[in-house]
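::Amino acid chain::
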Amino acid sequence: AEQLRRGLNERGWVVVDARSAEEHKLCRIKNSQWLSAPVVGELQACRPEAVVLVCNDGSQAPAASRHLRGLEIPALHLLGGLLAWSESVDES
């Protein structure tokens, strides 16, 4: 989570939420995008340095990051998901 915080602040990493649209609306990392076909198309076009996939606890994001890497998008996932983020970076 701390590495993601630094990547967002210093390197302009992109955060993509692999949870449902409803979950994303309720609670999310600031400026994260919900994983959808249009977002994937944008990522393929702009080729960010890194895309970090997030989910609640780190169980869903690895599959989504593997899928994006298969599309040649440089994707990682947040170990521990939003739970880890909320415990170590943003308690809100």
About this structure: Helices lie at 2-11, 21-26, 37-46, 61-70, 81-88. The longest strand covers residues 14-17. The chain has five helices and four strands. The first helix runs from residue 2 to 11.
